[in-house]
Amino acid sequence: MRWLLGKSMKIPTVAEALPGSDGYRYAIPDRHAVLGTRLQPPFPEGIETAVFGLGCFWGAERLFWRIPGVHTTAAGYAGGHTPYPTYDEVCSGRTGHTEAVLVAYDPAKVTYADLLKVFFEEHDPTQGMRQGNDIGTQYRSAIYTTSPEQAKTAGAALAAYNEALATARRGSITTEVAEAGPFYFAEEYHQQYLHKVPNGYCGLQGTGVRCAIPAGA
User: Fold this and answer.
1) Do residues 129 and 8 lie in contact, with contact meaning Cβ atoms separated by under 8 Å?
2) Percent of the chain surpassing pLDDT 70
3) Catalytic site residues?
4) Is the pLDDT confidence value at 3 over 60?
5) Domain range enclosing 92
6) Distance between CA atoms of 126 and 171, rounded to whole angstroms?
7) E strands, the chain, where?
8) How many domains in the chain?
9) Average pLDDT over residues 113-119
10) What is the structure's pLDDT at 8?
11) Which of 60, 79, 48 is nearest to 177 (CA)?
């Protein structure tokens, strides 16, 4: 549980964000600790990528690496302004990033709609700048799309789940949906954290609301 008292719940502007760096200030592992695949591109031909923010990235990454058809996953930072941020900088709320998971997947084995179903059903997308007891802009719900097709499917999924959540009186979705910008890999100890620390912290909790994503979306 990480309470970040006194931190702004407002995403900083570019002018307000920390300056960051021109490169990583730490080493990134070559291989996924569970899947054995490359953590960073280039990926094999036909592999597509998706980026999701579901709160703390430890539990979120584990959700996706367990899905058949997922080639690799990585914890990192997305949706912000500061280049090559560190975890401490992201935690300050002054970079604009949310904790995110990069998912590289084989669309012949698992569809983007399948991944979206996991996304919407395994966390609470109505909580704004928090997820459970994790509070701050870095824990906001987010979908960062990497193609026009993903954007279309994400929009249809959001509308469907918004209706289902409203029917269940669970509130409105606050998920940020935007075109993916740079994804910055998190420090080595964050990568596949819950494989390395099986009893480690995971604050993810779904709403219990299930929904079908419209066919052809």
Assistant:
1) no
2) 96
3) 56
4) no
5) 48-144+165-196
6) 6
7) 48-54, 70-78, 98-105, 130-131, 134-135, 141-145, 176-179, 184-185
8) 1
9) 98
10) 75
11) 79
CATH number of the domain within which 59 lies: 3.30.1060.10
Cβ-proximal residues to 205 (8 Å cutoff; 6+ apart), any chain: 123, 124, 132
- The residue with tokens 């084995």 is 109
Instruction: Indicate whether 26 belongs to any domain.
Output: no
pLDDT of residue 112: 98
Residue 138: closest CA among 190, 213, 189: 190
pLDDT tens digits, residue range 118-152? Answer: 999 999 999 999 999 999 999 999 999 999 999 99
Indicate if the pLDDT at residue 7 is higher than 80.
no
9 in any annotated domain: no
CA distance 102 to 16: 26
- Per-residue CA distances from 73 to 36, 40, 120, 193, 201 (Å): 11, 9, 18, 12, 19
Tens digits of per-residue pLDDT, 51-84? Answer: 999 999 999 999 999 999 999 999 999 999 999 9
Asked, for residue 201, whether it belongs to a domain, the answer is no
151, part of any domain: no
Reference 156, options 214, 212, 116; nearest CA is 214
Token pair for residue 181? 């910008």
